[in-house]
From TrEMBL:
The keyword Transmembrane does not apply. Residues 1-24 have a biased composition (Low complexity). This is RNA polymerase subunit sigma-70. Residues 30-95 form the RNA polymerase sigma-70 region domain. Residues 149-201 form the RNA polymerase sigma factor 70 region 4 type domain. The keyword Nucleotidyltransferase applies. Residues 225-314 form the SnoaL-like domain. Pfam families: Sigma70_r2, Sigma70_r4_2, SnoaL_2. The lineage of its organism: Bacteria, Bacillati, Actinomycetota, Actinomycetes, Kitasatosporales. InterPro entries: ECF_Sigma-70_Domain, NTF2-like_dom_sf, RNA_pol_sigma-70_dom, RNA_pol_sigma-G_actinobac, RNA_pol_sigma70_r2, RNA_pol_sigma70_r4_t2, RNA_pol_sigma_r2, RNA_pol_sigma_r3/r4-like. It comes from Streptomyces inhibens.
Length: 342
């Protein structure tokens, strides 16, 4: 049994003791879990912290439901609780980042160095954990764009309350008055925070781009060629697939590379251990295609999140925390093995 399931069971028991309609309330709360996880992920930059924050939100909702007077919708009330949980978690914490946020590109000869703590990094998340189903294709595209790794990184540059305002207003399309009520603030204060947040993102150059379209036949073919070339470790084939300004990053290491030439040199040199790897497609991550990479000996090596544009691969985002990430994506901890039950 997962920790989240156990916690839900315990809080259901608490609610039953307090006379709350446990089954009905559980269903009503669970209906909001995915969108709340998406909100907390945008706020915190970590799938694991987001799930913890949502579980804490559910616990607080269970325990205070008898004081919920219905003056706002249940959804708005849950977002208020989740916002407070996230703001508490962000007090005094260092903002999460990507390797390219911390330093200039490395060279092929740069030592990899020691890995930095997990709390340093923005981590990947399966789309299914954070993107609630949307009937409108345009809304679904905007939602996928709002969990893009670069945009999550941009959000971390904002002060926590500005971050909440920007997400609620520009991603979730709340009105200024709704956000003001949630934050216990004024409309003027919310509008001012939004303007400052927009200015910060504009100055950094990290703003939400054009919403991605669902993968078409050409993009699917590009990914198929990438898998074939990577598994054969065919550098000539990879040359034809990588954009000349593509990037490679590998948290928890701060080292990252920019440029097709350097990436290929690195794969031929320090990265030669990737030869013979197997790539297993997983559900999309951060609105992008993703794969689990296993080394030739069957050991897990990375979750790869792939960015593409104009028929080329523009970024290889490899996340090496396999012990936690492979189960998150439903992958076994050995190639050809059985995935552990969540």
């Amino acid at each position: 049994m997962s920790e989240a399931t156990a916690a839900s069971r315990d809080t259901a028991a608490d609610a039953a003791e307090q006379g709350a309609p446990a089954g009905e309330l559980a269903d009503r709360l669970e209906a909001h879990r995915t969108e709340l996880t998406g909100y907390c992920y945008r706020m915190l930059g970590s799938a694991f912290e987001a799930e913890d924050a949502v579980q804490e939100t559910m616990v607080r909702a269970w325990r205070s439901y008898d004081r919920f007077e219905g003056r706002a919708s249940l959804r708005s009330w849950l977002y208020r609780i989740a916002t407070n949980v996230c703001l508490d978690l962000l007090k005094g914490s260092r903002r999460r980042a990507r390797p390219m946020d911390l330093a200039s590109p490395s060279s092929v000869d740069t030592p990899v160095g020691a890995g930095l703590p997990e709390a340093t990094w923005i981590g990947p998340v399966p789309d299914e954990r954070v993107l609630a189903s949307a009937g409108d294709p345009a809304e679904a595209a905007v939602a996928r764009e709002s969990v893009r790794l670069a945009f999550i990184s941009a959000l971390q540059r904002l002060a926590p309350r500005q971050r909440a305002v920007l997400i609620l207003r520009e991603v979730l399309s709340w009105s200024a008055s709704e956000v003001a009520e949630l934050l216990g603030s004024s409309v003027a204060s919310v509008n001012s925070a939004l303007q400052r947040a927009r200015a910060t993102l504009a100055a950094s150059g990290d703003t939400a781009g054009e919403p991605p379209r669902p993968l078409d036949d050409a993009q699917q073919a590009l990914l198929g060629r990438y898998v074939d070339a990577f598994e054969r470790f065919d550098m000539d084939a990879l040359t034809a697939l990588l954009h000349e300004d593509s990037t490679l990053s590998m948290p928890p290491y701060a080292l990252w590379l920019r440029g097709r030439e350097d990436i290929l040199k690195w794969l031929r040199g320090p990265g030669h251990g990737c030869e013979g790897s197997h790539l297993v497609a997983v559900a999309a991550a951060n609105g992008r295609p993703a794969f689990g990479q296993y080394r030739a000996d069957g050991e897990p090596w990375a979750i790869q999140v792939i960015d593409t544009a104009d028929g080329r691969i523009t970024a290889l985002n490899s996340f090496l925390d396999t012990e936690r990430l492979f189960p998150l994506f439903g992958l076994p901890l050995r190639y050809g093995g059985q995935a552990e039950e969540a």
